[in-house]
Write a structure and sequence with these properties.
It contains seven helices and seven strands, in the order αββαββααβααββα. By secondary structure, it is α/β, with parallel strands linked by helices. A four-stranded mixed sheet has the order 4-3-2-7. It has a three-stranded mixed sheet with strand order 5-1-6.
């Protein structure tokens, strides 16, 4: 917030942030919230989080581990035959999360209004709500908009989900959606060309909503 207030934002960038999940606790105390963080969504990885020393040092350590994690996976992809057949490693191919900060992308996304209009914002006819925010992050990246990630995370209180992982239909749909997302993301990242599905009528522009002023 202090960085935003200092008005140092770049008009040609979009800004992301890691997401820190914390257990239910006293929301009036930031230190207690930080003590109750159990995971952080970073580049390509949801990392377990535990404060070691200061909070700032712990955040830095998480980011460093995430950095080497995704670099390692990209390296394995380049030497996939050696990694699989000699070292018996599992190779993950072309995951968008290794190139673009897709993790929990709906929890913080900031850019200049001109870029929102240029990118036409989040796809309105996406497969389902899952990964809708992630695909928009890749769209912005493919458009050549500079990606910047804040050092500190945004805080997100853990809560019950409307869809349970125990429901096999939900798991199947989520997997299909993830595969579709990866297919489109891979094409955009390699070709550096966004797939924009919203037409010029996006955002209900053709509707005239009545303005009601309440006193």
């Amino acid at each position: 917030m202090s960085f935003i207030a200092a008005k140092k934002l770049n008009v040609g960038s979009y800004y992301r942030a890691d997401r820190a999940d914390f257990k239910k606790c006293d929301l009036n105390l930031l230190a207690e919230i930080q003590q109750n963080i159990f995971s952080v969504h970073t580049f390509g990885k949801c990392s377990e989080f535990k404060i070691t020393g200061s909070f700032k040092f712990s955040v830095l350590a998480t980011k460093v581990k995430s950095y080497f994690f995704r670099k390692f996976h990209l390296l394995k992809h380049r030497f996939d035959w050696i990694a699989q057949n000699i070292f018996g490693m599992t190779v993950v191919y072309d995951n968008a999360e290794f190139y673009v900060h897709c993790g929990a992308a709906g929890d913080f996304m900031l850019m200049h209004s001109s870029l929102w209009h240029k990118s036409r914002a989040y796809p309105e006819n996406f497969y389902m709500t899952t990964h809708n925010d992630s695909i928009f992050t890749v769209i912005c990246f493919a458009m050549g908009i500079r990606q910047e990630v804040f050092f500190y995370p945004v805080y997100h209180q853990d809560h019950e989900r409307r869809n349970s992982a125990e429901n096999q239909d939900v798991v199947t749909d989520a997997y299909k959606t993830y595969k579709a997302f990866q297919t489109d993301a891979k094409e955009m990242i390699y070709k550096k060309k966004p797939i924009i599905t919203n037409d010029e009528s996006w955002g209900l522009i053709n509707y005239n909503f009545e303005e009601i002023i309440m006193e």
